[in-house]
# Entry
Amino acid sequence: MKILQNSGEPIYQQIANQFKSDILAGKYTQGEYLPSIRGLAKDLKISVITTMKAYEELESEGLVTAVQGKGFYVNAQDSEMLREQHLRKVEESLLEAIAAAQVARLTDEELMETMRTLLNMKEE
# Structure
């Protein structure tokens, strides 16, 4: 796990986002335990409180559940919920791309052509 000290994004948020991405991508399966709070804090050389805050955020989103004395395990992921989460990520990325295209003064057609080109490259 990579933590950027000067990214402008709080460290707990970086941790939560990385776990969230990994869970949604299937890197952690249902029932699998996340690294212990203390262990992760030690590995990342950060506060236990920061790690706990990240795990609590994942719990509030329904991605993990806390078990007293054992830690946090990954919940079963509803396929519709997973699809919605991925769709939200796509929308956020596309909005960023649209904003960047506006700064570069691309026309809508140029942006669409860029998208078509990238999609065609993916298929090769």
About this structure: The beta strands are 64-67, 71-74. The CA atoms of residues 38 and 76 lie 24 Å apart. The chain is about 60% helix and 5% strand. The two ends are 31 Å apart (CA to CA).
